[in-house]
Structures are given as C-alpha cells and as structure tokens.
Amino acid sequence: MRAWFSSGLRLLALDGSFIVPNDRYNQEREQSLAAKVLTLREEEVLNAAAALFGARGFAATSIRDIGERVGLLGGSLYHYIKSKDALFIRIHDRALQAAEDRICAAIAGVQDPSQALATACRVLLEIQLDPASLTMPLMNDFRAVPESVRVQLVERRDAFEQVFADLVEAAPMPAGVDRVVYRILLLTTLNTASTWYRPGRLSLEEVAKQILRVYSIEG
Amino acid sequence: MRAWFSSGLRLLALDGSFIVPNDRYNQEREQSLAAKVLTLREEEVLNAAAALFGARGFAATSIRDIGERVGLLGGSLYHYIKSKDALFIRIHDRALQAAEDRICAAIAGVQDPSQALATACRVLLEIQLDPASLTMPLMNDFRAVPESVRVQLVERRDAFEQVFADLVEAAPMPAGVDRVVYRILLLTTLNTASTWYRPGRLSLEEVAKQILRVYSIEG
DNA sequence: CCTACCGATCGGTAGG
DNA sequence: CCTACCGATCGGTAGG
C-alpha cells in the first residue's frame, strides 16, 4: 500500500482528483504522480484562482490578488504554480475534464438521443450556474489571454465540445437547421448563462426547461 | 449658416456623427457642440480604441497600444480623451446608439411582428459581424471593467435592449417560452456571433437564417 | 512562506 | 504632440 494511501485522510475534490494532507512524502511525489494528487493548500490556490479568473477574467486578475485570497504574498504562490499562464491552463483543463466526466456519467444510461442531449444540457447548465463550482472560468472569452495560452485553451475546449457534437449529430433537429451552427449556439447559451442568471424569479430547473424549449429539445 | 457647415468638407461617420477637418473653429467649439462634431484625429482615436477593446478586452488594452495605432505616444492621447474609463464608456455609448438607430430605421416600415423581429436580428448580426464596424467592443463581458464603469455600461445596454424587449413582446412565441429568457438568449446569440463566425462555409445571410430558424422566427 | 527586490508596464500629468 | 516623469502595479526571482 502506498504511503499517501495509508496516511488515512483522503478527500475527493469537486473535479475528481484526490486531496491529501501536506506531508513530506506527498511533496516529494507530487511531480511523478502528475496532477492527480494535490495538497490541501494546492487545492485552495486553484479554487481561489478559478474564482478570480472567472469573476474578472485573465488580464484583470493578478497573482497578488490570488495570493491574498489564500493568505499568501504574491511571490510565495510560485511555490505552488509555475506561472500565471500555466495556472490558467491548468484550471481550464481540470474544469473541462470534471465537466466532461459528470456529463458522460449522466448520459451513460440514456438511450433516446433527445433525452441524452437534454440531460447533457441540464448537467452543463448546473455546472455553469453552481456558485460553488466556480471552478469554471468561463470557457469563452479568451481575448485577454496571451496567444500561446489561447491555442492550448481552444484545443482543450474543442475536445470537450466533441461530446456535444456527437449528441447533436444523433438528435433530431428542426427542419433546415445546420447542426454545426446549432451546436455552437446551444453551447454559447449554456456557457454564458452565469453572466445573466440570478436565483429568484426562475429556478435552475426552470431555466434549463426554457433553454431546452427554445432549442426544440424534447426533454 | 454655421462655420463648420460652410467649411465644405463634411463626412458622415459610421455611427452617424459628423466628421469635419481639424480647424481652429472646430477645436474651440468641440465642447459646446457635445459629442456630435469630431475631428478626423478624434475619429481615428475612437476607431483604433474600439478595435483594440473589441479584440483584447478592456484590461488587456493599454493606452499606449491605442496611441501606437494612431501614431501617438500614450501621454499624447490625453489631449483627445479624459481617461481610459471615459474612453471606453464613450465608445460603448456611440456603438450602441449607432446600432439602435440602424435597427429602428430598418424596422420602421415593418408591420408584421415576426418580420420586425427578424429584421432587427438581421441588422444587429450584420453590425456585429461587419469587420469594418469594429465600433462594437462586444457588449458583453464587462468583467475586467472597473465597477464604476460597469454600472454605466449596463445602464446603456439595458436601454438598447429595450428595443428587442418590445419586439419580442409583440412577436409570437413557441408554446411555454418565457419571453424574458428568450430575449436574453437571442441577444447573447447575436452579440457573440463574432467570437465564432468566420466567412467561408456560410455567408452572413445563411448564418442569420440559421439563427432565426433555431429561434423559431418566421422571417 | 517571507523579505526584498528585478525590469517592465500601467494610467496619467506637467511643462513646453 | 513630445519629453520626461510620477506612483502604482505587474509577473516573476533569489536567498533564506
């Protein structure tokens, strides 16, 4: 049995990765275990950064802002991150992987193509509107991001969207609708819902129902 | 007859304001004539700033970037602008006013509610996708903008969207669709089209037709 | 994890 | 319209 496993305390983070207490063994193995095992402190840094990137965007979020959220000075953050660019890419990757996992799990047993698409939409909307899973720094608007970073974000996002491309391909469409355009509009709608939705008049379920209705999905 | 009128050369800018050659009379009267009469140089500055804000967002666009585009050093720009914040608000206001004017002119003679909504959508899409009228710094994503600026942008944008609110109110909807949600989804779709559309497979007219079809608008 | 700092860049100003 | 500069802040590093 591995040391980090026998150490007892182990938590499952929102995105499916393990969180373990910060001990020497873990610090030494961090690199070789890739991104799978994180210390509590690392998890804190990622969550704080995700929240700020999501709220203000890449350019308007400073390393010192992120540090302040977790009680560190800016420079000290570099013990946990390689660079601001790499941090953003990492958060984006983890958020999309977590979303993809949740969506694939939710549609695994669904046979009807319309029902599968409806379910995928509902789960993505849940993720985008969940204030706790601020883990989603809005997959759009890469304008303020350096070019070299943007190409990596776009590549990852395209992979994620393939899930929806497949679902849209299989689902029935209104007459004369281009499936590529439809998929883009649908995903934009789901991904930007957090910019306007505020709990109150409509519940999350009602918003989901409205979106499915506008997009002619029998859910 | 007014001096600026008799000076002969007068151009109509994209957003409907007049452009006149830079002469002493004009410079002296600029303030009292409000924002209606602009020197060529001012127009240049606004267009360059609009293009950069639109391409990179507020936080990632520097005053020096804008200056470079018009052949000035950063500091020299302050002869034409009051502040970066004020510049952004001004561009946003002018772009929305120009869009509103074009849309209202286009739907003026249209009686059928569905036809009117379809026309408004087509014109807004044209504006958002016209590479020349980069005058539109994407009316969404105010995340990187200072709070004091954002409230002014939102206020102006809400006024603009009232045109669409009225059109959606009058138009027939699919059964069970909430008109407020519908309007938000429709406007988001039109306003973000420039983030994904590239001329090639589909023409602007085809994209418009697709959007109208997805949103069940008989155009 | 902090102190202390680097060079670069930011929005903006003074003075001509 | 430029030179020359202000104080603030940026991402990032060294050394402990």
From TrEMBL, chains A, B:
Stretches of the chain forming a coiled coil according to its record: none
Keywords: DNA-binding
SUPFAM superfamilies, per the entry: Homeodomain-like, Tetracyclin repressor-like, C-terminal domain
Residues covered by the HTH tetR-type domain: 39-99
GO-annotated molecular function: DNA-binding transcription factor activity; transcription cis-regulatory region binding
InterPro entries reported for this sequence: Homeodomain-like_sf, HTH-type_TetR-like_transc_reg, HTH_TetR, KstR2_TetR_C, Tet_transcr_reg_TetR-rel_C_sf
Highest taxon, organism lineage: Bacteria
DNA-binding region per Swiss-Prot/TrEMBL record: 62-81
One matching Pfam family: TetR_C_24
PANTHER family: HTH-TYPE TRANSCRIPTIONAL REGULATOR PKSA, HTH-TYPE TRANSCRIPTIONAL REGULATOR RUTR
Official protein name in the record: TetR family transcriptional regulator
Organism: Novosphingobium barchaimii LL02
Organism lineage: Bacteria, Pseudomonadati, Pseudomonadota, Alphaproteobacteria, Sphingomonadales
